[in-house]
Amino acid sequence: MVKEFDAIIFDLDGVICYTDEYHYRAWKAIADSNGIPFDRTINNRLRGVSRMASLEIILEKSACLFSEAEKEALATQKNEIYKQLLAEMTPADLPESVKTTLDALRKKGYRMAIGSSSKNAMFILQQIGLDGYFDAVSDGNNITHSKPDPEVFLKAAQMLHTEPSRCLVVEDAVSGAEAAHRGGMKAACVGDASKEGAGNWNLNSVEDLLNIL
Ligand code: BG6
Ligand code: MG
After folding, report:
1. In the structure, what pLDDT confidence band is assigned to residue 15 with cuts at 50, 70 and 90?
2. 152-157 mean pLDDT
3. Average pLDDT taken over every residue of the chain
4. Is 120 a pocket residue for ligand 1 (Cβ < 6 Å)?
5. Closest protein CA for atom 2 of ligand 1
6. Which of 2, 39, 81, 185 is 20 to 30 Å apart from 51, CA to CA?
7. Is there an atom of ligand 1 within 6 Å of 202 CB?
């Protein structure tokens, strides 16, 4: 069989590990302490988008106006809470099924990268024991536009020396699937994005990648 892809670019939060739940809890704490309504439906809109863009979405429901300095302070507070949750993570937070799938894909010869909007990506990879595992890491520190802009994935493809059309993106965010498509890449979705039918393949789990690759 002729291979359609040479490389796979994985989103991190909500695909490799469940840090998306920690993002939710940290934002929920900030929203509650400022009297802003915030629930899991709104939270789904934060998937894939940058920290400041996430805050803007949360503040849509706020009765008060916040200055730029106050917004910076809220985003910093959220990140402090989030980092405390990340500090508790260990390699046991990398699901066995995800690790087995990554290893199997590596054996099949795929080059693999992370394509994440998060500025905490390297810390998370260290916590779950995947530091140095991927061939490239493109994250929130090397981009100027976050998903749905394709920049983070195009940079990952460049780092892998692979044409975008030869890369498959794996995503749990609708914004991430859109970013992949805008970058000329196909997307295999799990989680929320899969439920929304945002991918070229809408899978139940990361493990299901082995049925399509
Ligand atoms: C993405 C998450 O991976 O990273 C978003 O899906 C988050 O919800 C974004 O806002 C930025 O993360 P961080 O760690 O830089 O605040
Ligand atoms: Mg995600």
Report:
1. very high
2. 98
3. 97
4. yes
5. 48
6. 185
7. no
What pLDDT digit, counting tens, does each position of 79-98 carry?
A: 999 999 999 999 999 999 99
The Cα 151–Cα 210 span in angstroms is 27
Contacts 24+ apart (CB under 8 A), 151-157: 152/115, 152/116, 152/117, 152/179, 153/9, 153/115, 153/179, 153/180, 153/183, 153/185, 154/183, 155/115, 156/9, 156/113, 156/114, 156/115, 157/7, 157/9, 157/113, 157/183, 157/185
Test site for ligand 1: of 13, 45, 147, most ligand atoms within 8 A of the Cβ: 13
Strand partners for 100 = none
Asked whether the beta carbons of 117 and 24 are under 8 A apart, the reply is no
Tokens linked to 58: 């949360």
Q: Which ligand is nearest to the CA of 81?
A: 1
Residue 49 has pLDDT above 80, yes or no: yes
pLDDT at 1: 65
Nearest atom in ligand 1 to 120's CA: 14
